[in-house]
Design goal:
The structure is a single chain. With 678 residues, this protein is an alpha/beta fold. It contains 19 helices and 17 strands. Strands 2-1-5-4-3 form a 5-stranded antiparallel β-sheet, sandwiched between helices. A 5-stranded mixed β-sheet has the order 7-9-10-12-11, covered by helices on one side. A hairpin with an 8-residue loop joins β4 and β5. α4 crosses α6. It is a multi-pass membrane protein. It is an enzyme of class 2 (transferase).
């Protein structure tokens, strides 16, 4: 406002007149200046013109203000009016643009001043003073503009430095996280130069994976390919590299290598990117390496287990079908003319008994595997003479040995040797070894069973003159579902689980089992070692012959919804008083009047379940027990897991037999009850 008043005041000096002249002619000055300036400007659009007009107005006002102030008080510095010219300086102007535009504007103003003082009578001092004021004003404007530019550049540099520092901090944090992640994951990172054929850099995990000592520096590509990678995988890796170098796709390949220090064979997986070469072979490869040996081994084991599972299922189907054919044929012949001939009928009976026994043996093996793998198998331990288990195993396997004309040689113990274990399971261990020897020894072979005391252990050895076991197959002979001798020959029957079960049972008894063979057609030898019971003077109780017929007739009730099963079982006890029932209701009705000594009870009955029948029979037997009579209930079921047996005992059963039940076991129960009834 002060400036406007000064411009409009009357009687002003020549300097103030000059200021008013410049204000009046500002449009003409602006047009001349714009004409000169736009010729040299890169931009001539509306925004550029607005920037120039604004800056012109600012400079002209500063010059006029300086003239008016100098006229009123010569002692005041003309620089006092110049403040923050950067506010009127367009941001897109460079320093050279600013100086050029100021210089053009200064020329325009000086031309106008000379034109003003030309026709006017004025002293030379006033004229020179006007030029001096304009000169100083423009110098102050330039100095302020330079200072503003320096401040702006300093701010930009400071901002850039802050951004750079933040970027460096972020990069360091990222590198640290990557270092921690790669260390935790065991991932090696490295860089190769194609032109120099050198290893540029690799992290500590890379040294650990390859076994390269750190003081030797990173491996070169040539060293890695020739001395580390497995020779059989070098071509795979090279061809993969070449194809990815052409296609530009990432490298992703698994291969084997030998560690530099210990030459240990490891399986690794490589992943990385190849930067395209500017010149031939001038590529850079940045990659990672991860040791996947455990994963590769696990995958190989899974594939092998899957393969053996398929073989097992095919073998199981074959083994189950084999005995069904003679059973079906025998059943057909019994229903026709062969049933009338006693000799043929006896032969057919033996066929059925032998084949059903084989089926029962297969099912028992499968159940044993299930119990072992789920940890549900239990040993019924007692102290007994191990010769008892060996004798029983020989009795079980002797028919098969005679059928193949084998010579069984037994080298017995002279004195009793007592062990703490399950007699039935130990018998199963020895019979499995004998079955294996009989199976893989050609007809007319020789099998030797020997036992001897070795220190505090009893050693039982089964050797044969059979096909032997190859060196490659020997470490896997106790694996589940492994069959054959390892020479590529076909299996000779069975499911390939007998030796695996034998090994598990031996270890459960605190013993060890070892297989030995000198190779093809050199026979094999299996040795089981078991700890001897410390209390060797304890006498073992031997079970009597279960096949003896009971001299005292008993009242026996057989309950089974399968009519054939009930009637065939009744025929076995033909010397006793036997009744059969095919439902729970019928069994309870018969039991009231019959008062049986023993009940063989199928648990899976229709209507009233076998468990409920057992509870009611037990309630009915309380009065009989008070009168001196004792009822024994024997559960007969196809379910034989420990929880099934516990449930039947809770229902009131005295014992639990699993189908198909051995005839000897049934006869033994009846014989025991009959002997107690004497």
């Amino acid at each position: 406002m002060k400036r406007d008043l000064l411009l409009e005041s009357h009687g002003a000096s020549s300097l103030s007149d000059l200021a008013r002249r410049l204000a009046r002619t500002r449009r003409q000055l602006l047009r001349r200046w714009l004409a000169e300036t736009l010729k040299r400007c890169a931009r001539t659009d509306a925004d550029a013109k607005r920037g120039l007009i604004g800056y012109f107005a600012y400079v002209l006002s500063e010059v006029c203000a300086a003239l008016l102030i100098a006229e009123s008080d010569a002692s005041v510095s003309v620089n006092a009016g110049i403040a923050q010219p950067g506010r009127f300086w367009p941001a897109e102007w460079r320093v050279t643009d600013l100086f050029r535009n100021i210089e053009l504007l200064q020329h325009c103003l000086k031309d106008e001043i000379r034109a003003y003082f030309g026709p006017v009578a004025a002293s030379v001092d006033v004229h020179m003073r006007a030029h001096e004021i304009v000169e100083r004003t423009f110098r102050a404007i330039i100095e302020c503009a330079i200072d503003g530019q320096l401040q702006r550049q300093a701010a930009e540099v400071s901002t850039a430095q802050d951004s750079l520092q933040k970027a460096l901090t972020t990069l360091q944090a990222t590198e640290e996280r990557l270092r921690v992640a790669t260390s935790a994951a065991g991932i090696g990172i490295f860089e190769w130069s194609g032109a120099s054929r050198k290893g540029v850099w690799e992290n500590r995990q890379m040294y650990e994976i390859t076994g390269q000592p750190e003081h030797r520096g990173p491996l070169t590509e040539t060293e890695f390919m020739t001395s580390v990678v497995h020779p059989a995988d070098v071509e795979l890796l090279r061809s993969h590299f070449q194809s990815r170098l052409v296609s530009g796709q990432p490298v992703h390949v698994a291969f084997r290598l030998y560690r530099v220090t210990d030459r240990a064979l490891r399986t690794v997986e490589m992943f990385g990117y190849l930067r395209p070469p500017v010149q031939q072979d001038d590529y850079v490869f940045v990659g990672s390496l991860c040791d996947v040996t455990e994963r590769a081994d696990a995958e190989a084991k899974l594939k092998d287990a899957d393969r053996r599972k398929d073989i097992f299922l095919a073998t199981l189907a074959h083994e189950l079908r084999n005995p069904l054919a003679p059973v079906r044929n025998a059943a057909h012949l019994l229903g026709h003319s062969a049933g009338a001939d006693p000799v043929k009928r006896e032969w057919l009976r033996n066929v059925i008994e032998r084949q059903t026994g084989h089926l029962s043996h297969l099912i028992d093996d499968l159940l044993d595997v299930s119990r072992i793998t789920t940890g549900k198998i239990e040993l019924r331990r007692e102290v007994f003479d191990i010769r008892r288990a060996l004798d029983h195993a020989l009795e079980i396997t002797m028919p098969a040995a005679h059928q193949r004309h084998h010579d069984i040689v037994r080298l017995p113990l002279d004195q009793p040797v007592h062990v703490d274990g399950d007699p039935a399971r130990m018998t199963q261990m020895f019979s499995n070894l004998l079955d294996n020897a009989i199976k893989y020894t050609d007809d007319g072979g020789r099998i030797v069973v020997s036992a001897s005391v070795v220190g505090r252990d009893i050693s039982v050895t089964v050797s044969d003159t059979g096909t032997g076991i190859s060196g490659e197959a020997l470490p896997h002979v106790f694996d589940l579902f492994v069959q054959g001798s390892g020479h590529g020959e076909q299996s000779r029957g069975g499911l390939g689980i007998g030796l695996s079960v034998c090994k598990t049972l031996t270890e459960m008894h605190g013993g060890t089992i070892t297989a030995r063979s000198e190779g093809r057609n050199r026979g094999s030898e299996f040795e089981i070692r078991l700890p001897i019971c410390e209390d060797s003077n304890q006498q073992a109780t031997d079970v009597g012959e279960a096949g003896q017929r009971s001299p005292v007739p008993l009242r026996i009730l057989i309950v089974d919804d399968n009519t054939d099963a009930a009637l065939s079982l009744a025929m076995i006890f033909d010397t006793h008083d036997v009744r059969t029932a095919h439902s729970g209701e019928e069994a309870l009705q018969i039991a009231v009047a019959f008062e049986p000594h023993v009940v063989f009870l199928d648990l899976g009955l229709p209507g009233i379940s076998g468990y409920d029948v057992a509870r009611r029979l037990r309630e009915m037997a309380r009065d009989q027990h008070a009168a001196g009579k004792r009822l024994e209930i024997v559960a007969v079921s196809g379910y034989g897991q420990p929880e099934d047996q516990a449930r039947s005992i809770m229902a009131g059963c005295d014992s639990h037999l699993v189908k198909p039940v051995k005839i000897e076991a049934l006869l033994a129960i009846v014989a025991r009850i009959a002997s107690n009834s004497d």
